[in-house]
Design goal:
Order of helices and strands: HEEHHHEHEHEHEHEEEHEEHEEHEEHH
CATH superfamily of one domain: Type I PLP-dependent aspartate aminotransferase-like (Major domain)
Bound molecules: pyridoxal-5'-phosphate
Shape: globular
Distance between the termini: 41 Å
CATH class of one domain: Alpha Beta
Radius of gyration: 24 Å
CATH topology of one domain: Aspartate Aminotransferase, domain 2
InterPro entries: Group_II_Decarboxylase, PyrdxlP-dep_de-COase, PyrdxlP-dep_Trfase, PyrdxlP-dep_Trfase_major, PyrdxlP-dep_Trfase_small, Pyridoxal-P_BS
CATH architecture of one domain: 3-Layer(aba) Sandwich
Strand content: 5-15%
Protein name: Histidine decarboxylase-like isoform X1
Family: Belongs to the group II decarboxylase family.
GO molecular function: carboxy-lyase activity; pyridoxal phosphate binding
Cofactor: pyridoxal 5'-phosphate
Oligomer: single chain
Helix content: 25-40%
């Protein structure tokens, strides 16, 4: 694994906070396998620390700043084995090597490909990261434009804006299961918006798309394709969508496709690559802190260079051209992304993908065998299950719940040990919740399909492998 080299007279220890290493994480040198603190009994959800800003002279009787921070780090470390409900990869050891960078304010405002008059940026790293993704999504270096965003949401806002600028009268189409940032974009840009139905698995309903495209035939289409929906991990089929546009008589100049691949953008290419700029798509975005992992929220947005002129504005103040959404942009994030990509490489990522898919299947099979309603989509690491009855349990495992469903996202840091501990806890609690038969597990047939529902009514259709 590479490490940054510094000038001789620079001492990293001088800027590394004394003793603030997270006690819960012990790096063992293997990027994907961070050893975790063994926690015998479930730790309680964290409480508000009631932190206040205090004047330096008034702290005589209270804890020191380091003490408050240590307490905070300790609290987070204890909860790390229970972080299974949201898509963040916390397996990285960047913090040790990259912490010295925190002494600089690194700001990448403006265009990543243009230098401005300030040296404190990391655009060199940013372009390296963008080139890597351009290769992955099959677009030549001189044909693309992109930038490191603040996250998937900003990527969606940007991609849809590029589409809107190219096709100002276009209608935005997105499925019911697409991320809420897509509807937010429609609202911000005051675009006409068509919500397309989804299957029980969460995938776009292509016949509904077709009906809506035909109904709006006079107007261009801007389509948000979700490559891995937020809750169910369903993948909209880009090729079917392109065929549907063709069948409805939309020519290339009458549609724009934005691919929201927030989580699956680094999974799909290693299984069945459908994301490619060789196809008539306009933009692709992912979240950098999701599958790859980064301590701060960030993302990558790539579009065609020929499309970006519509958005670019010369800004004299920053001596640059700007086509991004934000003004100041985090200059640390590209370095963290570059470090992860260079350390893992395609082979490391491929290994992560395989391990996550295997672990997701393991979780699904074990829950299914135990009679719990559960669904796992193809190409997905999101295991959707019946909503646990008890809020305390939901909080303990930091689960996201929608209607009667919850999900576990089997990210690279989620080990079998953590999954076993979750399964055992769930099965024990279920015995208590449903012991006298007065209350029964929820029916989730409408949300995940009768064949995946183990409620008392649908048990008969429930398929145990
Ligand atoms: C499909 C999808 N798109 C976009 C986003 C937003 O990403 P971010 O949280 O990085 O803004 C998410 C987040 O979960 C997502 O699942």
């Amino acid at each position: 694994m590479g490490s940054l080299s510094f000038e001789k007279d620079f001492e990293p220890s001088a800027v590394t906070p004394r003793g603030l290493a997270p006690p819960g994480l012990i790096a063992n040198g293997d990027f994907g396998e961070m050893k975790r603190l063994k926690v015998a009994t479930p730790t309680a959800p964290r409480k508000n620390l009631n932190v206040a800003v205090t004047e330096p002279g008034s702290r005589n009787n209270g804890p020191s700043l380091d003490c408050i921070l240590m307490n905070y780090i300790d609290t987070l470390s204890q909860r790390i084995n229970y972080h299974i409900g949201y898509p963040v990869n916390i397996c990285y050891e960047h913090y040790a090597s990259l912490a010295p960078l925190l002494q600089f304010h690194l700001n990448n405002c403006g265009d990543p490909f243009l230098q401005n008059t300030v040296d404190f940026h990391s655009k060199d790293f940013e372009v390296a990261v963008l080139n890597w993704f351009a290769d992955l999504w099959e677009i030549e270096k001189d044909q693309y434009w992109g930038y490191v965003t603040n996250g998937g949401t900003e990527g969606n806002l940007h991609g849809i804006l590029v589409g809107r600028e190219l096709l100002p009268t276009g209608i935005l189409y997105a499925s019911k299961d697409s991320h809420y940032s897509v509807a937010k974009a429609a609202m911000m840009y005051r675009m006409d918006f068509e919500m397309v139905n989804t299957s029980v698995h969460g995938e776009m309903d292509y016949s509904d798309l077709k009906a809506k495209l035909l109904q709006n035939k006079g107007k261009p289409a801007i389509i948000n394709v979700t490559i891995g929906t937020t809750f169910k991990g369903a993948v909209d089929d880009l090729d079917i969508i392109l065929q549907t546009l063709k069948d409805c008589g939309y020519t290339y100049d009458q549609f724009y496709i934005h691919c929201d691949a927030a989580l699956n953008g680094l999974i799909i290419p290693f299984i069945k690559n459908m994301i490619s700029f060789k196809k008539p798509i306009g933009s692709v975005t992912i979240s950098g802190h999701k599958f790859l992992g980064c301590p701060m929220p960030c993302g990558i947005q790539i579009t065609r260079k020929s499309y970006i002129n519509n958005l670019s504005r010369k800004v004299e103040y920053i001596a640059s051209v700007d086509a991004t959404i934000s003004g100041s942009r985090n200059g640390l994030a590209p370095i963290f992304l570059w470090y992860s990509l260079s350390s893992k490489g395609q082979i490391g990522l491929q290994k992560d993908v395989k391990r996550c898919l295997d672990n997701a299947k393991y979780l699904k099979d074990r829950l299914q065998q135990a009679g719990v309603s559960v669904m796992l989509n193809e190409l997905s690491i999101i295991v959707v299950l019946e909503r646990p009855r008890d809020h305390e349990f939901v909080r303990r495992w930091q689960l996201s719940c929608v209607r009667d469903m919850a999900h576990v996202i089997v990210m690279p840091g989620i080990t079998r040990e953590i999954l076993d501990s979750f399964i055992n806890d769930l099965l024990q609690q279920r015995k208590k919740w449903y012991k006298d038969g007065n209350v029964t597990p929820p029916c989730v047939a409408e949300d995940i399909g009768a064949q995946n529902c183990a409620c008392s009514y649908h048990k008969i259709d429930f398929i145990i492998p």
